[in-house]
Amino acid sequence: MIIQDSDLFRQQCYIDGKWKTSAQSFDVVDPSTQQLVGHVPALDEEEILAAIASADDAFPRWKSLTAKERSNLLRRWHNLILDHQSDLAAIMSREQGKPLEEAMREVASCASYVEWYAEEAKRVYGDTIPMSQKGKRIIVLKEPVGVCAAITPWNFPLSTITRKAAPAIACGCTVLVKPSSYTPFSALALAALAEKAGLPPGVFNVITGEAERIGRVLSHSRLVRKISFTGSTEVGKALMRECGDSLKKLSLELGGHAPFIVFADADLDLAVEEAMTSKFRNSGQTCVCANRFLVQEPIYDAFATRLVDEVNRRFVLGPGSCAGCNMGPLIDDKAIVKVERQIEDAVAKGARIATGGRRRGGPGFFFEPTVLLDVTSEMLIAHEETFGPVAPLFRFRYEDEALQIANSSDYGLAAYFFTKNLTRAWKFTENLEYGMVGVNTGILSSEAAPFGGRKDSGIGREGSKYGMDEYLEIKYMCLGGLDWSVC
């Protein structure tokens, strides 16, 4: 893959408007080929603290700009992202492995969040509230929280950054982005475009290095007033504990174990088509992807047959640069081992492999798209998030049974179900213990929608008008001394 604008491929951190190296660095490897992509700095504690200080120094100047001035700069950044869509997709595909066409769609999603929040910057409204005491008024103001840190994952290395950074910047906050060590180059390319867009020094920073060290410094710093994290539930809980002493604002978008429920009255063609996208997008490495397929008994065999046929017909494994390949690798060998463990456990307990089930030989961390039949609740895959291209099919008979199985998980991020019954659509949605519900669709993400979950899937929302609230503090002013008699 050729990058047209070589200025986008950076191997330094971006701090306070400057590109900086460090004494230590680490390698980034292409999961499709296991070949070296490049190196980025591994910042030490002193360098991380200096980056935080620079963001704090920039905050007063940035928040003092008008909302329209911030909006205009975000709009320039949005335009540059779209102008460099092919290069950004190429960088992402090489370090993360997803096919170029899929990477192009993510770049478009990444840009959409910047565009959305460029507009929302101008719509941060307060309130004037009548008061029971004469001569006084209650005024509610909304102000930027301060320095914000965004800790982002490798599976969507561009869109998860702008979903956090764009609202923070729109509100008047300054941002430190800590990308995954698997995919730092996408974040650094965004920084290069932010610099070209004219974002002032210190407003958007990218720091790289050892995750535990950076997370600890960010959590303990009293200059950092907000952390937004996307990643595993285990790490999210640890981060929440670390933030306790400084009582900073926190958003956590954590693991998922989404049920995909198909009722007997569903449009079967639609359900199969949406299942393909929901489950196998990004090789199943999606927090909101379908993890448990609950299919009602009368249509179980028909759904299984069609799904297996589509999997066998549609997917070609290969690196992002491969013409005609539409499924990339898993991120590393540990991911493959986890998938293999779940499949072995399921088969040992009575499940059948209808297709797939094996890693592909040769370089790269490729695993065949897999469908498991006759899966039951005793199996590991019924309780663990998979994060791989495996579709386990469960049977159910009654609506209440499907609801009980769906809600039995500790996770509560996304759920999907398919039915033509409008009453069931409302009733089932209101009883599912999930932050997002797709009815007759397998795709949920949109810049206009509030993205987030319940229970062990986290706290807070990203995207939509609600995403702005995560980066704002509410201040109440009681205005007294108002003497109406002089008017």
Automatic annotation (TrEMBL):
Quote the EC number. Answer: 1.2.1.16, 1.2.1.20, 1.2.1.79
User: What GO biological process term is on the record, naming one?
Assistant: gamma-aminobutyric acid catabolic process
Q: Where is the Aldehyde dehydrogenase domain?
A: 21-476
Supply one GO molecular-function term.
Answer: succinate-semialdehyde dehydrogenase (NADP+) activity
PROSITE patterns noted in UniProt: ALDEHYDE_DEHYDR_CYS
InterPro entries, sorted: Ald_DH/histidinol_DH, Ald_DH_C, Ald_DH_CS_CYS, Ald_DH_N, Aldehyde_DH_dom, Aldehyde_DH_Superfamily, Succ_semiAld_DH
Q: What class of enzyme is it?
A: oxidoreductase
Ordered alphabetically, the record's keywords are: Oxidoreductase
Is Oxidoreductase included in the keywords of this UniProt record?
Answer: yes
Q: Does the keyword Oxidoreductase apply?
A: yes
The family note in this entry says: Belongs to the aldehyde dehydrogenase family.
- Enumerate the PANTHER family for this protein: SUCCINATE-SEMIALDEHYDE DEHYDROGENASE, MITOCHONDRIAL
Q: What name appears for this protein in its UniProt entry?
A: Succinate-semialdehyde dehydrogenase/glutarate-semialdehyde dehydrogenase
